Amino acid sequence: MDWTPSRAVSGRGKGFALAAIGYTALAIVQTYPLVVHLSSRIAADLGDPLLSTSILWWNTHAVPLTARWWNGFAFSPATGMLAFSDHRLGLSLMASPLQWLGASPVTAYNLVFLATFPLCALAGHALGWTLTSRHDAAAICGLAFGFNPFRVAHRSHLELLAGFGMPLALAALHLYLRDRRTRWIVAFGLSLILLGLSSMYYLLFFSVMLALWVLWFVRDWKTMGAIATAALGAAVALLPIALGYRRIHAFYGFARTHEDVTSLSADLTSFFASPPQVALWGFTAPLATGPFPGEHALFPGLTISLLAAVACVMVIRARSSAAAALRRSAPMPFYVLAAGVLFLCAMGPVPTFLGKPILRQGPYAWLMMLPVFSESIRAPARFGLPALLALATAAALAFNRLTLVPSTRRALAIALLTGIVADSWMRRFETPRVPESWRAPAGYDFETAIELPMSEFGDFAAMYRATRHGHPIANGHSGFVPSYYLALQTSLAEGTLRGLDALGDGKPLLIVLDTVADPYGRWTLALTEEPHVTKVGEDGRWVFYGMNATASVRSCDAPEVPVVAAMDGRGAIDTTALTDGTSTTAWTTGRPQQRDDAIQLELAEAAHLCQLRFSMGALWEAFPRDLEVTTSDNGTSWTPRFEGSPAGLVVRGAIANPKDIWVAVPLDGAYARFVRLRLKASHPTAPWRITELRVSGSRG
Questions:
Q1: Does domain 563-698 have CATH number 3.40.1350.10?
Q2: pLDDT of 329 above 50
């Protein structure tokens, strides 16, 4: 056959076009009936897909990187909400134009979700083609990367489906290594930017694979410099986002615990565990142990595993033969090695088998020495997709090196592609209906809404409904959750509405009660009995209540009145612990709160007191659940100044400074020398703790 360059380009284009059609058709078939319900149903479940839908909607309606964009639309009135999760700006490059053209937020989400499958497959296909110049081998790489059990396990995590930047970056590097054209190094840098905008997890994890690639393939400083320059350019482009995350996470004190990391690390059994939705291998799902089984399902599929095993055999044989043979197969041993290293990284800081350590320390422990891994990353098991990319590439290279007659090669390619599809084929694809929405009551002017009762999936739905009514909402669910929100949830769960006082910030608050989620009328009764709440309307299953605007606690400009003595039920207290300006010393009950636990303060002199402030540090759980504050000028007769739940004051304090939560109790100018704080109720688990305490007033 006359294979001229022009005909080669034509054949390549035709091959990619056919591949794109095939991958798109497969995505539609695998996720059916989603394609016929794009506006009324949503892919996978009513959790993270609703979060992604609402974030994509917000990216369409707010200018990225502005203060308004960072603050977001949920967790109101807190700031920095967009940094609580992945921002998904790269995926908004598809979702925003769709919404500008009239698509609903859920339609845009579903179309982007569907697009991630052919996009990842085509990107993998491009890498396979770059290394083999054959579409059959490229299809093995593309299909295995775009359609695999890992993606089934994470079908509700849109940002984890958007890994197409990784194979594109690798393909660009291989092309640059081949012909040294500047356009390929530019393409590499753009691929990194696209990856960072689409999935921060993969940008960080791919950096490990990239470092291995450079160590394996690069032998001269000029190439090293070009790659470093492109990577630095991508880093500079992404720097404003990184700095925004760093600033907001530092303000809230967000950090991952060692338990977070280990619980979301793969076990050796994870590599044999498939998600239960996979028809052929779902029976292996029990091997995915831990609190989040979906994070532990890392089975690559039998077909790609067998091909990877063939690649390993070829590598071993190449090592025992002439050096020239090893050079010819250089990409294959790299991708076999990279797959092993990345799968080992997925096992976290201490690799285990059935929960028992098999190594004292894994490579992920070295990564945790870097601040970004130790503070922000909690799921090492998500190294699974970069590892699977390496495995798929090694498999494609192994297939390409098989010496077969054309008919046999075609038959084997068809069998392997069929096997790859079968390995990830789902029994059925879930497409739940999108949550119902409510219409705000006419004539009630409000700033923020909150939906009750609060729950994990209820909060996801509330965020989605914000895309319909357009108001900020106090509800929220995300990768990080601020302490004020935990305090609010806790106080509401424990039966008090006082935490809501902090949400209006001087503006009316709309409380939306879902009566379907309140079958016994608990919340209906609580809202009806709350004096600051008024019913303002109904809309089917929802009943609306307005809460009177509650202004912030008035600032107290009066000087501090020194505390000279303090005592509790155990005797005198060293006041230094309450006034030394550090959170390392504290007064505490040392046990769960009990009714009548008290701390009494004596001031240096009697004064007109305007405010009592006490800090709990970052331990919001230690706030008093039912508090009485009284004052006295003689230590004998006491006058009440505050009584009830301080939950609203705690929430307000946690919003202002989540790492040092101060509770400000107004004393309304009481003339006194003694102040007493006493608990009116017990709590089964939470202690009462005060790290710092201040009393302000005028001595005149």
A1: no
A2: no
